[in-house]
Request: fold
Amino acid sequence: MNFSSPSTRREWLRKSFLGLGSIAAADVLSRNGLVQAAGSLPRLHHRSTARRIIYIFLEGGLSQLDSYDHKPALEKHAGKPLPDSIRPPQFTFAKQGTVIPSPFGWKHWGESGTYASDLFPEINGRFIDDLCFLHSLHHNSNDHITAKRVLHTGVPIEIRPTLGSWLVYGLGSMNENLPSYIDITPTDPNRPTGFLPGKFGGTAIDRPDRKSPNLVWENLDPQFPDQERHIDFIESLDRANSADPELEEMELAFRMQTEAPDLLDIENESEATRKLYGIGEDHTDEFGRALLLARRFAEAGVRYLTVTHATPRYGNLWDQHSELEKGHRGNANAVDRPIAGLLHDLKVRGLLDDTLVICGSEFGRTPTFEFFDGITGRHQNGRDHNPHGFTTWFAGGGVKPGYHHGETDDFGYYATRDRVDIHDFHATLLHAMGIDHEALTYFHGGRDFRLTDVYGHPVRELFS
Reply:
């Protein structure tokens, strides 16, 4: 075959790499970060508290009122309408019923005495004193689609870059053989990068079907033959045509073949580590594998990872409009040990100090029953969507252990003290990674855009 022309070489490379060029594009040319991308800003605007983020996303709406935001008023007013002082918002997903108390047991945990339910016994029993709680996060999007978009991009409808894409754009790569942004088991694996170039997007790791226990990287073939010989050949092409960026992309794609398959193969982990994450047990196996992969990729230099717990095809696993206790208990049983395992693993490996772990949902739940229908007047034993005041927790990455920031009202409906909107939330995460949210901009459509638009203040009280 004649490789004399660049177009012919590129065509051969595209076929050879089994589609990996699209994966490589998510990271290539971003390896030097904002210094090269914008040419004016420093790599870090200030000293960071974290080098990487692992975002555990419990899709559907974990109830703050049944996990970490205890409200005695729910017991006192059980079966009664909300008092006039707590007015439901103009729009709700369903008609509101009467106040429903938490069906879970509550107690003080750890030396910090954090009052929490028994929904997550392993996390609370072992790591409650390591957690930093934000109880006053809020936004205005009541449905799952726009709420998820707000949480990840800052806007409800317009397609904008995610937090992960902004971080890759601003900071680049810590490992040139891997993407800087990985989505593990996402329900929307093709989340666009908005106006940022596609090379700053996330790369999905998912399961091909329900029969295989292993999570896979689509188009990644660990059995690709004669790797070294082909890499040598590609390098010779680069030297002959060093100005061709597509050849750089293909070289990176091929380099990923040498490192990523080993990272995906968790069978080489010890039995003790696998047990730590609940791998091999029916209810924890899938999420345990996902979080173990997150630790392996974080340790290998991936800067931003999201790990989603949701039904693979339909999502919204934590969306308990009915069967609240059964649904939340089952979901918690699937994630409690894996999350505790991740925190333990990061801690003993010395990674938790500079890894910011985040755990939360796109919104919380209401303090009232969801109304079933207008004919029977019966109530569902579940809660509706509530984006007006909910809880997210952090661990590692320089946050204050055992600290609680913000409050909701007596019924847990609205954030009332030290309110943190979504732009403050994103500004805080950028701050942890050493980025001034006002200075991280991208010129598009005639103006400079930023993740936080024209809003936001980092919540510095969260950090030690």
